[in-house]
Amino acid sequence: MKFFSVLLHLIKLLLLLNCIAQLSFSAAYDGPLYDSSAYRECKTQPEDPLYNGGVLRHYDHNNGFNQKTLDSITTPQIFSPAFVLQNLNQATKYSFSSWVKIDGDTESAIIRANFWSENSSFKCIGSVLAKRGCWSFLKGGFEIRSPLNLSVIYFQNSEDSGIDISIASSSLQPFTDQQWKSNQDYKINSERKRAVTIHVSAKNGTRLQGAQIIVDQISKEFPLGSAIANTILGNLSYQKWFAERFNVAVFENELKWYTTEPEQGKLNYTLADQMLEFVRANQIIVRGHNIFWEDPAYTPAWVRNLTSDQLQSAVNSRIQSLMHKYRGDFIHWDVSNEMLHFDFYEEKLGQNATLSFFETAHKADPLATLFMNEFNVVETCSDVKSTVDTFISRLKDLKRDDIRMGGIGLEGHFSVPNLPLMRATLDKLATLGLPIWLTEVDISKSFDKQKQAVYLEQVLREAFSHPSVNGIMLWSAIHPYGCYQMCLTDNDLRNLPTGDVVDKLLQEWNTREITNQTDEYGSFSFYGFLGEYKASVRYGDRISNSTFSLLKGDETKHFNIQL
User: Fold this and answer.
1) Which of 72, 160, 288, 501 could serve as 333's disulfide partner, Cβ 3.0–4.6 Å?
2) Exposure of 302 in the CB half-sphere (CA atoms within 13 A)
3) Could you tell me if 281 and 242 are in contact, meaning their C-beta atoms sit under 8 angstroms apart?
């Protein structure tokens, strides 16, 4: 009997070491572990290839590739250097990486790794801002849904200018769909959960064996929410539906300049104020979106007609009015929305205009995190205006002395998600050490509702499993006409397939009520998702109700209850 008691205690100690996820993972999984390594620096020598090269480990360019092989492919668009691949597996995700260097008259150029196959069109699977004379790291990937006899990965300058491209330490690592999910689950268990031990004792310190414990998670630490519009005002059913699910919100249009000041000098914050009352009443945090939008199509008409001096005065008034009115109310502000694709303010006010917006906003509300919010960074690498390195370069330009708090906003308007590319992009952005949020997630309405749900679940799992993603916002505010691209419910608040996905994941990423009792050491251990918990303990006629916070940490959280 004593043997089993000791064995039980040893099992408990393993749990307390907060490595149970890794232990169970390694015991049940013999596939490749995903390598999250990424580099921003241009290096004199390339690093070793990830996965020791993967399936490219023994690739022989002399045998596996020659120009005659490429010439036999019926397209003039494939160039050297390239990898000619045969018999890629279906239902497989491929993580691709390579070090790239350019030579020629150009100091730097965006180099894309493209993928071609016999039954698919060309697509970008990774990009890098390569430089002359040093090695830059490209990381991306692709998915294969059907068997391929012949395919090619090749490198190309996005501007098709005459430069020489050299590659080194290339790697292509396959993951089956199940292996990819196993890696996701491992990261979720190790990054979004933590071990807890509850110790129960009498007032005199005596351990109490057999005390009945009920543990219930009452709130989540990870922010997962959605956009709302003024259609939620007065709609009690919608309000109840939203508050039961989400712990963070963002106003779809009600803070944008064209809403708050449609005519010069006529400020109207009525809708934003009323929506703020709703989120406060339900203890929901809220993002500020946005101060400025660089796209002139969404800039108030009266602003577009101002002279430079008048515009400077107007933007100063806008920042002061908005930020002072709502100082401390919004956890984030998207300062200059979509600045990689549009440049209305910098064209009118000079190249330092955006920097001054960030500086002024930071002074007005120093505790709000200021975000650079952009589309087509994590969704694709085909958009030359918003490659991951372009985003990083622009963000570094904004990190000046008095802008100490910055965030990475990735809109996430997806069509068919490329999960290996998405993860690779997040890996590289994570090297900045800044909070990353997916801020406007949806799936294109070009797909039917079932397919939208499939793709949405893929995106949400990928984001939640990445340790550097700090929050996820869905772009699914309800209107009489529907939603921007993707709704979670119909107008009667009946779940669509996408809503079913969200509800399923909210349940999955929550610690369900636990009922148990303390062991001979007067303690009980469990592994729970991060957040707030309620613990009820009964021993005989003695009862205690307590709450505790489970925040991220490598060590076991110990919580003491006395009866």
Assistant:
1) 288
2) 13
3) no
| Cα–chain center distance at 14 | 31
pLDDT score of 158: 75
Measured distance CA(263)–CA(300) in Å, rounded: 8
For residue 148, the Cα-to-chain-centroid distance in whole angstroms is 31
Amino acid at 440: E
Phi/psi at 310 (nearest 5 deg)?
-65, -40
Confidence at residue 34, expressed as pLDDT on a 0 to 100 scale: 97
- Is the Cβ–Cβ distance between 503 and 495 less than 8 Å? yes
Residue 282 structure tokens = 């339900």
Q: Identify the band that residue 118 occupies on the pLDDT scale cut at 50, 70 and 90.
A: confident
Long-range pairs of 156-162 with CB within 8 A, sequence gap ≥ 24: 156/79, 156/111, 156/112, 156/114, 157/102, 157/109, 157/110, 157/111, 157/112, 158/109, 158/110, 158/111, 158/112, 158/127, 158/384, 159/109, 159/110, 161/104, 161/106, 161/109, 162/104
Catalytic residue among 191, 440, 457, 462: 440
Q: What is the DSSP string of 58-123?
A: T--HHHH--HHHHHTSS-S---SSEEEEEEEPSSEEEEEEEEEEEESS-SEEEEEEEEEETTEEEE
Per the prediction, the chain carries an average pLDDT of: 90
Instruction: Report whether pLDDT(6) > 90.
Output: no
Residue in this structure with the two tokens 């998207």, named with its chain if needed: 334
Stretch 263-290: mean pLDDT, rounded? Answer: 97
> What average pLDDT does the segment 209-226 reach?
97
Q: Which helix (H) or strand (E) holds 367?
A: none
Asked if omega into 66 is within 30° of 0 (cis), the reply is no
The residue annotated as part of the active site, out of 261, 338, 359, 379, is: 338
CB neighbour list of residue 18: distance below 8 Å, 6 or more residues apart: 194, 195, 554, 555, 556
How far is it, in rounded angstroms, from Cα 509 to Cα 544?
Answer: 27
Side chain identity, residue 222 = F
Averaged pLDDT, 315-342? 95
Helix (H, G, I), strand (E, B) or coil at 5: helix
What would the pLDDT profile of 504-517 be if each residue is shown by its tens digit? 999 999 999 999 99
179 membership: H or E segment, kind and range: helix 177-191
Residue 143 annotated among the catalytic residues of the structure: no
Q: What is the pLDDT of residue 58?
A: 84
User: Which amino acid is it at 243?
Assistant: A
Rounded Cα distance, 130 and 108, in Å: 5
Give the Cα separation of 520 and 348 in Å (integer): 73
DSSP tag of 247? S
> Could you give the CA distance from residue 151 to residue 170 in angstroms, rounded to a whole number?
16
Q: Is the pLDDT of residue 13 over 50?
A: no
In which element (H, E) is residue 427 found?
A: helix 419-430
Tell me the two tokens of residue 364. 């007005």
Q: Which helix (H) or strand (E) holds 563?
A: none
Burial class of residue 360 in the structure, from the number of CB atoms within 10 Å of its CB (0-12 exposed, 13-18 middle, 19+ buried): middle
Q: What is the C-alpha separation between 144 and 180, in angstroms, rounded?
A: 13
Per-residue pLDDT tens over the stretch 347-396:
999 988 998 999 999 989 989 999 999 999 999 999 999 999 999 999 88
